[in-house]
Amino acid sequence: MEFEYLNDYKGLGRAVFLRGYGKELIVTLDVGPRILHFSAEGYQNVFAEDVQEADVLPDGSVCHVYGGFRICHCPETFPRSYISDLSLIHISEPTRH
Predict the structure, then answer these.
(1) CA–CA separation, 72 and 81 (whole Å)
(2) DSSP annotation string for the chain
(3) What global pTM score does this model have?
(4) Is the confidence at residue 7, as pLDDT, over 80?
(5) Mean pLDDT of the chain
């Protein structure tokens, strides 16, 4: 499994690139967390990416859509499922025993 930090992915800040088992994955760290890229190795991304799209929520806050797949819990309910993606995500490599 290949693991690489990306300093600025499409203007969204830090992200992690993973490649292995014939698949590629890019997950944002400074927004989201979102899986913005998923593909077979060397093929087109199966997710749409629109880093400019945003929606105004009923409470007046802005929810940036970005595209990809937002990692969240279910069932969806406001406001829990619609918290802004602008919170930092902390990640560390797992230790191997």
Answers:
(1) 7
(2) -EEEEES-STTS--EEEEEETTEEEEEESSSTTEEEEEEETTS--SS-EEEEEEEE-TTS-EEEEEESEE---SS--TTGGG--S-S-----PPPP-
(3) 0.70
(4) yes
(5) 82
